[in-house]
Design a protein that fits this description.
3 domains; Heat Shock Protein 90; 22% strand; 650 residues; 28 strands; Rossmann fold; nine-stranded mixed β-sheet; Ribosomal Protein S5, domain 2; binds 3-[3-(1H-pyrrolo[2,3-b]pyridin-5-yl)phenyl]propanoic acid
């Protein structure tokens, strides 16, 4: 045990248990918060905010304010009842101290309350405490102000009264421990996106974020306020703000079925993609589950019944599949479940069987009412479904054609692929390289044992705007399927990608470090996101980072990746002397020779690959549709305001 622990007053059995708990968290932080990188770091904030959200859901809190302080500590302030500060009989200390130091103590006082919130790991604020060098809690309750401070979870003094107050609430300030987290800088955008999402998912709560590290031109701190009066209705409108709606208004349900609170909102747009997002207790269930199954079942059944009865399907000669009802659909399904069971690879798939029926009932009722009350809109939906089915039928024919020739399955590699000799996918890498000439250089520069090169010619298809059969007919895309060795499932679940024969576990997008290059990378990422998402979810997709500059002084050659770095290195190379350093700006991969490309961008010893991940699927959807859609102004705004891949945490 550490010094600090020994030096701190006496210890009863309760205290020993507390210390053991805190030590367990510090020893295996990833077990409690997922990881110690950027995700885990931000997770700490969600954990604290979730407690305040619970207080709000219990009906006692209307405002939650988050501050990123100048030193990258975080403050979360709410106007709830305040964590109780009275003596906890058994533990012989303040209830506040118990909440802050005992694992999973969080909600125990408030029996019978409806605790549904909670981060993915639902570990409670004591974990945040254990992983913070400093944490301070201030409680306003019963006209009095209280405080307590901790270091790595250990109280520095007993809870003390520090004055009077005319409000109630809880305020927690914590500084993540830099000896545990490999990243300690908070990203405003990540936190803001989560708070926005929380405001949509929990209507009526005022949330705000303030970044005290940055100021606007008028001297105020950078920040945003989030408030949603109508919940998911606003969420789907926000998600679809860059798509063209084909209906007026939002189809919406909010209520309880079989004792399960269900909220659903949906709209149809003129696009071809399906964007259905599901949440359980405010957690994004990426892998879906029983609630999503209920949604789909009711959607298909209700629309099919309506279409059949309306006689609109008489002329349709082929089967309409479930997917056809979801083309151009944007929807959010949010349920609250008392004891959620999470399954699946990333534990984001709801397993509770009783939820299927609840959502099915809710959606069936919602849609039946809507279709009855809005016959014109109902027509629009059915026409859209028929169009989707017709296109899918055409796509199936196209796909069968190519499948027969084995184009979309692993056998037969594309001619342009320069494969590696290794066969173990875990060791293999494939570089998707923009242009034949850069492809040639990469082929010369690579280590052919484990690195394959696939040059991509010309423009990559914008899958956001193309119908499915066009996507499967595209040469470059067919080649990518072939090279990667992934195949599609059967027609019904064609999004079920078969990864068994995946030939590479590192798929590296390598494009020029200029605007065109980043556009091509975005197009490729859009394709991966829409058609090969599991590859991203499994962490197989990367972006190469070629250098921007070569600095030369005699035989001394140095590379750098940004302007800042360039200037520092120039100074270093000059060493205070008045000598000439030649600066070469690389405009494209083509300007490097094979050896340079290997040294800087491909050699695993020296390169930096950025792993592509999906922070928030909902936000990713919106951004892809915006970046790839027709709506130019928001796209320009976005590209100007952000570096390359805003919400793709690459
Ligand atoms: C348990 C009981 C009560 C309040 C809270 C927990 C509470 C916890 C947090 C965490 C962040 N903000 C919070 N606000 C409240 C109050 C029980 C009562 O007053 O009867």
């Amino acid at each position: 045990m550490s010094e600090e622990i020994k030096n701190n007053e006496e210890y009863g059995a309760g205290n020993i248990q507390v210390l053991e708990g805190l030590e367990a968290v510090r020893k295996r932080p990833a077990m409690y918060i997922g990881d110690v990188g950027q995700k885990g770091l931000h997770h700490l904030v969600y954990e604290v905010v979730d407690n305040s959200i619970d207080e709000a859901l219990a009906g006692h809190c209307s405002n939650i304010d988050v501050f990123i302080n100048e030193d990258n500590s975080i403050t979360v302030k709410d106007n709830g009842r305040g964590i109780p500060t009275d003596m906890h009989e058994k533990e012989n200390k303040s209830a506040l101290e118990v909440v802050m130091t005992v694992l999973h103590a969080g909600g125990k006082f408030d029996k019978g309350s409806y605790k549904v919130s909670g981060g993915l790991h639902g570990v409670g604020v004591s974990c945040v405490n254990a992983l913070s060098t400093d944490l301070r809690v201030e409680v306003h309750r019963g006209g009095k102000k209280f405080e307590q401070e901790y270091k790595i979870g250990i109280p520095q003094y007993d809870v003390r009264e520090i004055g009077t107050t005319d409000r109630t609430g809880t305020e927690v300030t914590f500084k993540p421990d830099a000896s545990i987290f490999v990243e300690t800088i908070y990203h405003y955008d990540i936190l803001a996106a989560r708070l926005r999402e929380l405001s949509f998912l929990n209507k009526g709560i005022h949330l705000s974020i303030t970044d005290k590290r940055r100021k606007n031109e008028d001297g105020t701190h950078v920040g945003e306020k989030f408030f949603s009066e109508v919940g998911l209705q606003e969420f789907v409108t926000f998600l679809d703000s860059t798509r063209d709606p084909i209906l007026e208004g939002v189809i919406y349900f909010d209520g309880e079925k079989n004792g399960v609170p269900v909220e659903v909102a949906m709209v149809y747009n003129s696009s071809y993609s399906e964007n259905v997002h599901s949440y359980v207790n405010n957690i994004n269930t990426h892998e879906g589950g029983t609630h999503l199954a209920g949604f789909r079942r009711a959607l298909t059944r209700t629309l099919k019944k309506y279409a059949d009865e309306s006689g609109l399907l008489k002329k349709v000669k082929f089967e309409i599949s479930g997917d056809d009802f979801r083309e151009g659909l944007t929807a959010v399904v949010s349920v609250k479940v008392m004891e959620p069971q999470f399954e699946g690879q990333t534990k984001t798939k709801l397993g509770n069987k009783e939820v299927t029926g609840a959502v099915d009932k809710a959606v069936g009722e919602m849609l039946t009412n809507y279709l009855e009350e809005n016959p014109k809109q109902a027509q629009v939906i059915v026409q859209k479904v028929i169009l989707a089915a017709t296109a899918r039928n055409a796509a199936r024919k196209a796909r069968e054609l190519v499948q027969r020739k084995n184009v979309l399955s692993g056998s037969g590699l594309p001619g342009k692929l320069s494969d590696c000799s290794e066969r173990d996918p875990e060791k293999c890498e494939i570089f998707l390289v923009e242009g034949d000439s850069a492809g040639g250089t990469a082929k010369q520069g690579r280590d052919r044992h484990f690195q394959a090169i696939m040059p991509l010619r010309g423009k990559i298809l914008n899958v956001e705007k193309a119908m499915q059969h066009k996507v499967f007919e595209n040469e470059e895309i067919k080649n990518m399927y072939k090279a990667l060795g992934v195949s599609l499932g059967t027609e019904e679940d064609e999004r079920e990608l078969n990864l068994e024969k995946l030939r590479y576990h590192k798929i590296v997008i390598m494009t020029d470090a200029d605007i065109d290059g980043s556009h091509i990378a975005t197009l490729l990422l859009t394709f991966f996101f829409r058609y090969l998402k599991p590859l991203i979810e499994n962490g197989y997709v990367y972006i190469a980072t070629p250098p921007l500059y070569l600095l030369k002084r005699g035989k001394d050659h140095r590379y750098c990746w940004d302007e800042n770095n360039r200037d520092i290195i120039i100074d270093e190379m000059k060493g205070g002397k008045d000598v000439n350093v030649v600066i070469q700006r690389y405009k494209g991969l083509g300007e490097m020779n094979a050896e340079q490309l290997w040294d800087t961008t491909m050699n695993p010893e020296f390169r930096t690959l950025k792993k592509v991940s999906i922070d928030s699927a909902a936000e990713a959807d919106r951004v892809f549709s915006m970046l790839m859609g027709d709506d130019v102004p928001p796209r320009r705004e976005f590209i100007e305001a952000n570096a390359k891949y805003a919400n793709i945490d690459a």
